[in-house]
Write a structure and sequence with these properties.
Helices cover about 60% and strands about 0% of the residues. It is an all-alpha fold. Helix 2 runs antiparallel to helix 8, helix 3 runs antiparallel to helix 4 (about 60-75) and helix 3 (about 45-60) packs parallel to helix 6 (about 95-110).
């Protein structure tokens, strides 16, 4: 496979011409169920958005990064918090609970040189900040963004377009 030149412009059209939810209508039900599960209010919406932004950054999806950055801005998050998600480990803008959530998404999405991705120590640390329902919700939020990661990386919806109409 030939790599694209780093100076080549990226086209502003999706790779897949038709919206996948029109091709596979049952996907809309799965998506709605995931949004409902994550929206149970056991984890602050800001934390979920921060985790999902970090996931988009880790997998290298401009669409997801732009989408979740926009959600955070619409929710009134401080620009310092949004822009320092990629370097959260040394940023003073996050709570202990948010740091635990960001560490969890990184552990899930990045290969580990030490074997197990989510160590017992990390699980214990995250559990100090989240009860069982919140931890399950946080886990589902990571799964939710992974569900959309595959779509974003394969179909390449246009970044910055409406979440409900990236194929327009």
């Amino acid at each position: 496979m030939m790599a694209r030149s780093i100076t080549a412009e990226i086209p502003m059209r999706p790779r897949m011409a038709e919206d996948p939810t029109k091709l596979v209508p049952a996907m809309a039900e799965v998506s709605a169920s995931l949004f409902k599960a994550v929206g149970n209010q056991s984890v602050p919406r800001a934390t979920i958005s921060l985790v999902q932004l970090r996931a988009g950054q880790i997998v290298g999806s401009t669409y997801l990064t732009v989408l979740h950055t926009g959600f955070l801005r619409q929710a009134g998050e401080a620009e310092e918090r949004i822009t320092s998600v990629s370097s959260w480990q040394d940023s003073p803008y996050f709570t202990g609970a948010e740091r635990a959530a960001l560490a969890l998404v990184e552990a899930v999405l990045q290969p580990s040189t030490d074997g197990e991705r989510v160590s017992d120590e990390l699980y214990a640390e995250v559990s100090e900040h989240y009860d069982d329902k919140a931890l399950a919700t946080l886990t589902i939020a990571i799964g939710q963004v992974n569900f959309f990661t595959a779509l974003a990386l394969v179909t390449k919806p246009v970044p910055g377009r409406s979440f409900t109409d990236p194929w327009a």
